[in-house]
Fold each of these.
Amino acid sequence: MGKTNTKTDTVRQFYQMGILEVRMENYKKRTMKYCALQGTYWMLAAVGLAFVTPLLEAKGFNSMEIGWLNAVKYISVIFFQVWIAAFSDRHAKTFPLKWIMQIMGVTGIISAVAFWFLDNNFAEAVIIFILYGAVVNCLSPIVDSLSVQYMNHGQDLHYTLSRACGSGTWAVACVVIGSFSDCFGINNILILQIVSTIAFLAVTVIMEPVDFSKDEKVEKATTQDTNVKRIESQEETPQEIRSEVEKAEVHSSWYLIRNYPKYTLFLAGCMIIFMGYNLNATFMIDVVEGLGGSHTDFGLAEFVLAAAEMPVAIFFSRMRKKFSIDQMMVICAIFCTLRAAATTFAPTVLLVILSQGFEILGLGIFYAGSVYFVMENLPETDVVKGVSFINVASVGVGQAIASVCCGMIKSAVGLHNLLIISSLVSFLAVLVMLLMKIAPKKGRQIA
């Protein structure tokens, strides 16, 4: 009998080891594919985000027009992101995120081709920038949300490593794009965006579908009688049942804002952080050129900016053991302020480039940690909406307001004063994040 039990235990151990090996192999493959997805996205975004101002200046648009066009792009983000997020949450099982990414990628190629042929025509530029906002800026949270769907349904991957790959490809792409621009002309960098988008589409094809059969979320109680029986049996309290029901429901964006004060203050902090970032970064090419630099130097500054994000992405899990996600977001706001101030008062091109190193604990934390903030503070059914709404607040509202203002401010009081204002706005974000840190996760429920 003892020998039989020993043999059974041995068989069970080998079986469990086999399962673990398969899971680890799937984990590695999934992470590699997701690394490629993040990498190809940030390659195409390097043109669509970092080099938009040089492109528009080369086509003859002035500071006011550039500000308004960027505002159009970010307002587009607000409308499209809210709709895409709501659609994605409600149709997650029938219309996967990879299909949404493929539709957006094809639209991105069309908008890049149109941008390539664009002359100094403001009306045509508005249409193109509506598409740019709907695609280039809205893709980022969709890519991030795919990782959340995987992890919430038992398909683990190394998100922070994948995000580090995204930062790395952005860094390399910015240097390549800057050099390419100086050699072949700024307008031709749009060819690089089209090629990168094609690569992105190819990666979406090989991404495995989310396995919703592994869904571990609690199903909504179907009848009131069932809930009454659970309460009468004293197995669960009404509050516990209400919590389970809430987890199974898909909520509106406004419900989340009204009922989750910590998340709402986080959205406000993100909005102000990106306002400060936009005010500081939109005309950075003018800062670099004003100090005697070139597009290659501008690309190097973007390289340092992105490369600084990589250590945080790689070691983020270790940082979480020492700091709460709330504390890390306060640190993020502080270092965003330091980066803005250092850029503002840098007397040489070299110091402008090196100033971007403050990003190491700035937006590097934001990009690595915002997904985890949502997972810790919102119901599982609302993660796509939660991540997407962060993009709406930061990239949409924050950068839209800043884009309109930065063109006006630059025209009215000059580039240097614009940069000083960006530093003050960034400091305001620190104060809001401190309020977020002490706010309760959930307030009194409001329907």
Note: DSSP finds 19 helices and no strands in the chain.
Amino acid sequence: MKLKFGIKEVVAIGIGTALFVALTEIQIPTPIPNTYLQPVWRLWPFWQLFLGLL
């Protein structure tokens, strides 16, 4: 089985990786000690949906 990646696929992978890494650095503190919310996990399914359609 041969896999062929075009420019669109490579760019989509790069954008998705960059956004994921950038948003993993954002942590929202909560009232519970040592607990943080990371917004990246709420946006991940949308990125998979939209970038997967390229």
Note: The helical segments are 7-24, 40-52.
Amino acid sequence: MLLLIKLAVVFIVSFILSIQDLKDRRISWWIIVLGDLIFICLQLFDYGLLNGKLEASFWLFPVQSFCMFLFYLLVRIISGNKLGSGDVLFGTFIGLCVKWNLLYLTLVITVICADIYFFLIWKLKKINLQTIKIPFIPFMSAGLISVYLLDFFVERF
């Protein structure tokens, strides 16, 4: 049951932020903070808070969340602020949701989705990719949801 609630939170937060990013190129930071807090609470229950003893592996999630924040912040700095601050904050949510051994897969799927989209608009619309602003959270959401579903089905079956 807890796994389904986590899956619903991932879908809802990802969907809302993707729509906001596509529509306005801005997101509500409080949705990310709320999603982070809800997911931390769910992880606490999942990792033994109800038993009175919290598993040590729980602490990987806040650490990897911070690492994802630093990773996307570094990408933002290196790219000259082409990655938005909302994308950096969404990285914290990804770090809380995905197990550490699947984070790389989330990044790979995100980049593949973005690359396919960039290639298609470059070939079909003949747009200069240096000047266009494209929301990145939908690609991050696609990576997150794909990996989360993969982990969900592998764990269940």
Note: The chain has a mean pLDDT of 88.
